[in-house]
């Protein structure tokens, strides 16, 4: 079939951040941990005796210090304001205890204390920081939300809820915990907002086998919280052949589920980049992009999606002027868009390269790509270039050009409706989100803000004079 190729574009539509954040690589004497709430890597050397280094993309919050080796560390994380450090250790008889160290100006003070969860014989599966002064212990008995009082070296229970959980998944962007009960046969989300624990509607998963922890991701996409489930043919009798990704709404996403057709099998990972869902596939070393805001009619409350464009590899990266192994078995992917290679000692973020989406597109899919770019923050320049090229070859692309302007006009009509409004405005017009530097229109019920009128400029600059 005929294809459209944007001039001076390359084949890659995703890349790793140009300069990775470097840290001490994993080794027999160095352990590496990731704090997904603050986006920071902790490297602990010799249990902390010879140093703990904290690195992230924000240099102003990077630090290093030393601490006493009191046993193997399971998890180590700062509070969001970096004033309290919490440490969970693997010590016999202390599976329900977390240590705390107060910090000032990113340096430890001499104030240390511990807290044990309320349930006897409970095991802490992990802990998270919903707010600067609040920490949640996730245990096999339930969730305990506590207020940390650093000056008093105490913790005060705010709320607790019982639930027999085997493992959990955490979304720092939404403050939502998904606990797996009955070894994954039951998925129960909880919201940790407003200093309380709210039990949300459980997720119905009709599979022949319990869900595995590695196949579950809680993420924030298009202003809503979702549970992404990888459905492999071996686990779900209704699925045959390639793996599907099911997006099940947890909070703010309505009742419609989205099914992403990967056409692949094997090991996967998930990133969210500019409200696009990116599915990384290790064996083919490719990444696919899905846009759940595409125009689609649900059938039985389910919308099917194919990749926006053909899956390709991320742009090759280099470390120390040497090619970096892409899609390495050492990679660990965290939400929303972090990639860590502990063996290389590198932390990256996944970035969108909008022009790559138009590098090699089926002719019929050109309007679809333009529509997707209208919903991206950095899509404007690529849309300009595509329109200019389509206009220059209007004899070949007249139908596609017409449909592209239909997509632009649909957004322009939204601008026209709110052009006389001031401040933020909620519009109930479906479940689409349009992103430019001028317009931020989130899912129905969320707010719209107006900026400098980029879409108007786009239309004017593309119209004949």
CATH topology of the largest domain: Methylamine Dehydrogenase, Chain H
CATH class of the largest domain: Mainly Beta
Class by alpha and beta content: mainly beta
Q: On the 0-100 scale, what is the average pLDDT?
A: 87
What is the gyration radius calculated from CA atoms? 24 Å
Counting copies of identical and different chains, the oligomeric state is single chain
CATH superfamily descriptor of the largest domain: YVTN repeat-like/Quinoprotein amine dehydrogenase
Distance N terminus to C terminus?
34 Å
CATH architecture of the largest domain: 7 Propeller
Number of domain modules = 2
Basic shape = globular
Work out the number of β strands: 37
Feature tags:
5-stranded antiparallel beta sheet, 465 residues, Methylamine Dehydrogenase, Chain H, 12% helix, single chain, 4 helices, globular, mainly beta, disordered C terminus, 37 strands, 5-stranded mixed beta sheet
Which SSEs are present, and which pair or pack?
Layout: E1 3-4, E2 14-16, E3 21-22, E4 30-35, E5 40-45, E6 51-56, E7 63-65, E8 73-78, E9 84-89, E10 97-104, E11 107-116, E12 124-131, E13 134-139, E14 142-149, E15 154-162, E16 165-171, E17 176-181, E18 186-193, E19 196-199, E20 216-221, E21 224-231, E22 244-251, E23 257-261, E24 268-273, E25 276-281, E26 286-290, E27 302-305, E28 318-319, E29 322-323, E30 331-334, E31 338-341, E32 346-352, E33 361-362, H1 366-374, H2 380-392, H3 394-418, E34 425-426, E35 434-435, E36 439-441, E37 447-450, H4 454-462
Helix pairs in contact: 1-3, 2-3, 2-4
What does this structure look like?
- With 465 residues, this protein is mainly beta.
- It folds into two domains: 3-356, YVTN repeat-like/Quinoprotein amine dehydrogenase (Methylamine Dehydrogenase, Chain H), CATH 2.130.10; 360-462, no CATH class.
- Helices cover 12% and strands 42% of the residues.
- It contains four helices and 37 strands.
- The chain is globular and about 75 Å long.
- The model is unreliable at 422-465 (pLDDT under 50).
């Amino acid at each position: 079939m005929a294809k459209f190729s944007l001039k001076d574009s390359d084949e890659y539509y995703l890349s790793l951040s140009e300069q990775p954040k470097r840290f001490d690589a994993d080794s027999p004497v160095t352990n590496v941990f990731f704090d997904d709430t603050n986006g920071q890597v902790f490297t602990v050397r010799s249990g902390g005796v010879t140093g703990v280094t904290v690195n992230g993309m924000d240099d102003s919050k990077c630090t290093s210090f030393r601490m006493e080796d009191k046993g193997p560390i399971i998890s180590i994380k700062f509070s969001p304001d970096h004033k309290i450090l919490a440490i969970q250790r693997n010590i016999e008889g202390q599976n329900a205890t977390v240590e705390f160290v107060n910090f000032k100006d990113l340096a430890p003070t001499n104030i240390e204390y511990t807290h044990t969860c309320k349930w006897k014989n409970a095991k802490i599966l992990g802990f998270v920081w919903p707010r600067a002064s609040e920490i949640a212990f996730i245990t096999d008995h339930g969730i305990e939300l506590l207020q940390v009082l650093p000056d008093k070296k105490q913790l005060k229970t705010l709320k607790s809820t019982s639930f027999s959980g085997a493992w959990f998944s955490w979304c720092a962007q939404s403050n939502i915990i998904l606990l797996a009960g009955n070894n994954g046969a039951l998925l129960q989300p909880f919201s940790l907002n407003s200093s309380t624990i709210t039990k949300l509607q459980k997720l119905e998963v009709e599979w022949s086998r319990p869900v595995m922890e590695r196949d579950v991701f809680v993420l924030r996409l298009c202003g809503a919280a979702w549970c992404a489930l990888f459905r492999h043919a071996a686990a779900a009798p209704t699925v045959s052949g390639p793996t599907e990704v099911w997006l099940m709404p947890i909070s703010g996403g309505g009742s419609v589920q989205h099914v992403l057709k990967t056409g692949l099998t094997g090991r996967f990972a998930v990133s969210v980049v500019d409200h696009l869902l990116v599915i990384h596939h290790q064996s083919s070393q490719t990444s696919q992009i899905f846009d759940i805001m595409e125009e689609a009619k649900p059938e039985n409350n389910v919308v099917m999606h194919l990749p926006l464009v053909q899956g390709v590899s991320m742009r090759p990266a280099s470390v120390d002027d040497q090619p970096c192994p892409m899609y390495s078995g050492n990679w660990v992917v965290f939400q929303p868009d972090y990639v860590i290679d502990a063996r290389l000692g590198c932390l990256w973020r996944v970035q969108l390269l909008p022009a790559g989406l138009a590098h090699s597109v089926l002719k019929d899919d050109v309007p679809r790509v333009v529509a997707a770019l209208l919903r991206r923050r950095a899509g404007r320049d690529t849309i300009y270039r595509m329109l200019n090229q389509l206009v220059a070859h209007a004899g070949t692309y007249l139908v596609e050009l017409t449909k592209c302007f239909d997509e632009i006009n649909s957004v322009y009509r939204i601008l026209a409706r709110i052009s006389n409004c001031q401040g933020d405005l909620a519009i109930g017009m479906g479940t689409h989100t349009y992103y430019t530097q001028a317009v931020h229109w989130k899912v129905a019920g969320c707010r719209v803000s107006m900026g400098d009128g980029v879409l108007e400029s786009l239309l004017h600059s593309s119209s004949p004079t």
